[in-house]
Amino acid sequence: MSAPADLVAVLVVTAATVGIGAYGVRLSRTTSDFYVAARTVSPVWNASAIGGEYLSAASYLGIAGLILAYGADMLWYPVGYTVGYLFLLLLVAAPLRRSGAYTLPDFAESRLDSRVVRKTASVLVVVIGWLYLMPQLQGAGLTLHTATGAPSWVGGALVAVVVVVIVAAGGMRSITFVQAFQYWLKLTALFVPVIFMVMAWQSFGAPTPAQSAVPIVQQDVTVHVSTQVSVDVLVPTTVTAQGTVDGQPRHGTVLLSSGQHWFGSGTNLTLLRGSAVPQAVGQSTQLNASWARPLGSTTSHDHPLYAIYSLVLATFLGTMGLPHVLVRFYTNPDGSAARRTTLLVLILLSVFYLLPTIYGVLARVYAPDLLVTGQTDSAVLLLPGRLIGGMPGELASALVTGGAFAAFLSTASGLTVSIAGVLAQDVLPGAGGVRAFRIGSVLAVTAPLVLSAFTTQLPIADAVGLAFAVAASSFCPLLVLGIWWRGLTAAGATAGLITGGGLAVASVLLTVGANARGGWIGSLLAEPAAWSVPLAFIVMIAVSRATASRRPAGVSRALFRMHVPERVLLRPPDRAPEQA
Fold first, then answer.
1. Would you kindly state where each structural domain of the chain is located, as residue ranges?
2. Residue 295, by phi and psi: left (phi above 0), alpha (psi -120 to 50) or beta?
3. Where are the alpha helices (DSSP H) in 75-151?
4. Average pLDDT for the chain
């Protein structure tokens, strides 16, 4: 890749982000501007902004990397990310907008008349936000390192600084303009190069993974092993090694027999054209035939069918519990606009997610060497240079790199707003004022910036998937029951949030910290949604029935406000009769 062109692309995207954000600052005057853009964002503009912040590092880089490694089963990620908005449209979008809340904790308190529920929801908003922010900063570090060789922490720090400046200066009003611009930039950044890559693929004879039993390299390529890695060799292959192989210093040709081998830190491996690619242990070790067949891949889970069902449940239901997504619906003028926004988002996401799928398949053919180190998240960044070549390839690489930075900036901006809003209202002094919001925006990015340094070995899409599992296990039951069931009580909501959210968070910590992935225990912890979501619903319902006498007095008024369209109301919602 051309480091100068990629660096210029990063700087241009950063400058454009700051410039557009500065324009939004001029329009931010009130607290409502900072939190919900004064509730005046149109459906088209809001849908573009949602697409901008929702299409994160997991969508832009992670999906292609997972498809490269694991194959057909990973198509559930884009399907789940998109279908989640259908559930949000049917169950949550319009009632949530009519609730009049600014944040998820606002909704929890107004619906259940409980400060305890509000505090519990606030903690979970911060946890989910941090879990989602970490892979954005991790992806930014990977992108800048791949493009320029800069240390991995530099990219994350750059995104953190830019996001804090924009959010602290202009809040929601400012980032709405930024995120809408960045959706179309990301779509263009993937779409234009893929046209030329498909043309190049055709000119090379349209090779496919099915044409070989195992992944093979299409051209000579050198792989640098930055940290010690163990690999599985499916068929004997010859490599040129400069470094350590199986504990022995090697400088020259090495025959790797079938089985497991390991390469020391700092080793350079040269794979010759047509050579089989060793695959990192613990990520993916499979033939191309199983890679292309649903449920045929050997994933990092010992029970792939369970993992897929749990992933589907997390992505389908987790979207409605993501704080940075939900806060967008508060910015619509009314419930009808919120529904139209969601429909437009479904269209925008469906178009976008076709592209990472193509990148993932092409990477299996032209970038399988990434399987050696497991750094498959960089496939999108490397492909344009390998397929197109020359000056056009450098420009395409720069465009993809710029789009990647737009993905990190837009998603990190939305997450920072949602976290800062909660910190300002429930943690920091200042009663939710603008000053507290600005301090909260700094605190919102500090913790994930530090933590991202310890999660570099976890694939970006996997990290985001864990955030979805926590959201599905906590806020999904709260919203569905809070909007559609009058029997929910504060005690039931609190018990369900702590049970579902707490157990999902514990599973995430064990998965990330202890790398607990072996056997049934490892699979249950790595993909907790299949058991934590039903458990949260059961606990909320059971405890609510046991505490039915403590049902909030204003429940009928709250449900009336959420379910009656604004145009039908003949008087302000807060005067709705209790018997409505």
1. 3-204+292-563, 217-276
2. left
3. 76-91, 93-98, 104-112, 115-148
4. 83
Residue for token digits 């955030």?
467
Reading the block at residue 56, the tokens are: 């994160």
Q: Helix, strand, or coil here: 551?
A: coil
Q: Which of 302, 279, 294 is nearest to 376 (CA)?
A: 279
CATH of 3-204+292-563, one of 1.20.1090.10, 3.40.50.1820, 1.20.1730.10, 3.30.565.10: 1.20.1730.10
Q: What is the structure's pLDDT at 249?
A: 93
Determine the distance from the C-alpha atom of residue 358 to the mean position of all C-alpha atoms in its chain, rounded to a whole number: 19
Q: Which single residue is written with the structure tokens 């900036």? A: 409
pLDDT digits (tens, 9 = 90+) for 303-316: 778 888 998 999 99
535 Cβ contact partners less than 8 Å away, ≥ 6 residues apart: 473, 499, 500, 503
Per DSSP, the three-state class of 490 is helix
Categorize the per-residue pLDDT at 577 as very low, low, confident or very high, splitting at 50, 70 and 90. very low
Q: Which of 414, 571, 385, 478 is nearest to 49 (CA)?
A: 414
Residue 1's pLDDT band, with cuts at 50, 70 and 90, is: very low
CA distance 363 to 369: 9
Most confident by average pLDDT, 125-129, 155-159, 509-513: 125-129
* 317 pLDDT higher than 70: yes
**Residue ranges in 388-489 assigned as alpha helix (H):** 390-426, 434-451, 460-484
Instruction: Return the residue matching tokens 């490599």.
Output: 239
Q: Is 565 exposed, middle or buried (0-12, 13-18, 19+ CB in 10 A)?
A: exposed
Around Cβ 576, how many Cβ atoms within 10 Å?
18
